[in-house]
Amino acid sequence: MAVRPSVALRAPPKRFAAARYSTKPETTAEFDPNAITSMDKQQPPAPGEDFRVAIVGAGNINFGSDEGPWNHSFRLEHKLGPRLKVTALIDPSEQRAKQVLKTKCDSFVVSAYKDTVIYPNVEAYIASLKPEERPHAIWVGSPPAFRGRLEHGRDLEEVLAKGLPGVPLFVEKPVSTGPVDQAFAVAHKIEQTKTLVSVGYMLRYLKVVQKMKQILEENNLNVMAINARYIMAYEHTAKLDWWDKSQTLGPIVEQATHFCDLSRYFGGEADLSSVMAHSVEYFEPAGKLSKIPVDESRVAPENRIPRVTCATWKFDSGAVGSLTHAVALQGHNYSTELDVYADGHMLRLVDPYNAPILYFRRPGDDHEEIVRYQNDDPFFSEVSNFIDCIENGPGASPILSSYEDAVKTYALTWAIREASERSIKK
Ligand SMILES: NC(=O)c1ccc[n+]([C@@H]2O[C@H](COP(=O)([O-])OP(=O)(O)OC[C@H]3O[C@@H](n4cnc5c(N)ncnc54)[C@H](O)[C@@H]3O)[C@@H](O)[C@H]2O)c1
Fold first, then answer.
1. How many angstroms does the Cα of residue 341 sit away from the middle of ligand 1?
2. What are the φ/ψ torsions at residue 82 (nearest 5 degrees)?
3. What's the start-to-end Cα distance of the chain, in Å?
4. Does residue 73 contact residue 158 with C-beta atoms inside 8 Å?
């Protein structure tokens, strides 16, 4: 078996992706636009000691789907190569877990999954764990209803902190569906235990987003306004739960969370007491949709999602933020854009999900410059950076979304949802 090199001999993390970004989320002084972030351009992963991962959730985010480019296991395979050993797959749906494992075991990545054990919950996994099988990372892509809280059954972070203290944790957004103060309490506990956590706000890892940060910082700009627009294509969204606020909390907390997060990334803290919002509800003439792919009558009227939410708020800096989210388009592609304004500057981030482009206007010039980077993969960058930090120590590569920071985004999304609900005319 190949001997794992010491940390000093290990290939430097700058080989990878956003590894050349600064270690602090607030600065991009080391942003390298030429860093390679696409998987097919990486050096093949070297053999070495096993890297054990326990995956929580056998669903779309961890194993892929037709809906989008997410698929954490695929990125882990390309980051770690033959070293990857998925020792546990934790999912109450044994059938779903078996299905994804079969697909993997029928493929060239069989060595990573041939010994994977399926568990119905983390408690069963921890109870059966031998010390030598302690994972190097836990990858959480279970529904947010089962985490980020204090009560039993929804306190995944607490169970892991007790059973597997100090094991680094990757957690998907949103961090919870429970009360915001409980999510802050979980963040506090994580901070106390100094556990390395990365939250899946992958858009922060986009090169165009890092370029925007760099422009703002290098020019010492005060952001004046941020305008986020997220128009989703609903025709193929066939999960009934997505249309049910009691299940997935609605499109602001579940989906527009990415743009609320980017707004905070560029604008700083939002003053939650300033949030105002209006919505278009299902029962209003403007809210009638003709191609909903599920039987919405199965969702209780009070839990049906808004078709449009328009919100405004102040940032602590004095800047203003606004968000328009709409469930309005048909077909497949969303229309998304986030504009940042500062004295003499306009930074327009267009289509960050599919073909990210930055349109950029400088002082003293009427023209918009265009910045785009080929083959950028923010999902790979967030996976790669997290593994680099586990292997080479915190700070080896920047982790751009901490747990506490992600809770602040969660709080903003709830403030928007609540403000819009207060303004509904029944
Ligand atoms: N960052 C992104 O772009 C992105 C994209 C998709 C999903 N997500 C997030 O990933 C998370 C999961 O979404 P998904 O689309 O994979 O959902 P999914 O429904 O496809 O899969 C969830 C899986 O978790 C399992 N599960 C249910 N309860 C569980 C529990 N207590 N413990 C372990 N597993 C449990 C389910 O059986 C299912 O297999 C959500 O928080 C979602 O918002 C993020």
1. 35
2. -70, -10
3. 68
4. no
Ordered by where they begin, the domains of the chain are: 13-203+380-402 (3.40.50.720), 205-376+408-422 (3.30.360.10)
Quick one: 51 exposed, middle or buried, by C-beta within 10 A (0-12, 13-18, 19+)? buried
CA distance 81 to 11: 15
Ligand 1 centroid, distance to 27 Cα (angstroms)? 31
Q: Tokens 């305008």 label which residue? A: 227
Which of 3-17, 276-290, 342-356 has the least mean pLDDT? 3-17
- Name the closest-CA residue to atom 1, ligand 1: 200
At 13-47, the pLDDT tens digits run: 333 333 332 333 433 446 788 888 888 888 889 89
- Residue from 39, 91, 343, 382 nearest 209 by CA: 382
Q: Does residue 59 contact residue 141 with C-beta atoms inside 8 Å?
A: yes
Does ligand 1 lie within 6 Å of residue 96's CB atom?
Answer: yes
* Angstrom distance (rounded) from CA 156 to CA 197: 13
The tokens of 130 are what?
């031998």
Please state the pTM of the whole predicted model.
Answer: 0.92
| 8-state DSSP, 24 | S
DSSP state of 143: -
How many CA within 13 A on the CB side of residue 347?
28
What is the residue with the minimal CA distance to atom 3 of ligand 1? 70
Distance CA 275, CA 348 (A): 23
Per residue in 315-341, pLDDT (tens digit) is 999 999 999 999 999 999 999 999 999
Decide the pairing of beta strands 197-199 and 169-171: parallel
Task: Tell whether ligand 1 has an atom less than 6 A from the beta carbon of residue 383.
Answer: no
**What is d(CA 79, CA 76) in angstroms, rounded to the nearest whole number?**
5
| CA 142 centroid distance within chain | 13
- Give the separation between CA 73 and CA 363, rounded to whole angstroms: 44
CA distance 231 to 327: 6
- Burial of residue 110, with CB atoms counted within 10 A of its CB: 0-12 exposed, 13-18 middle, 19 or more buried: exposed
Choose among 409, 356, 279: nearest CA to 37: 356
- Residue 122 CA, closest ligand 1 atom number: 32
Pocket test for ligand 1, best of 55, 126, 157, 172 (most atoms within 8 A of CB): 172
Tell me how far the alpha carbon of residue 63 lies from the centroid of ligand 1, in angstroms: 10
82 vs 111: CA distance, rounded Å: 7
Asked if 397 and 25 count as a contact pair (C-beta separation under 8 A), the reply is: no
Beta pairing, strands 223-233 & 335-342: antiparallel
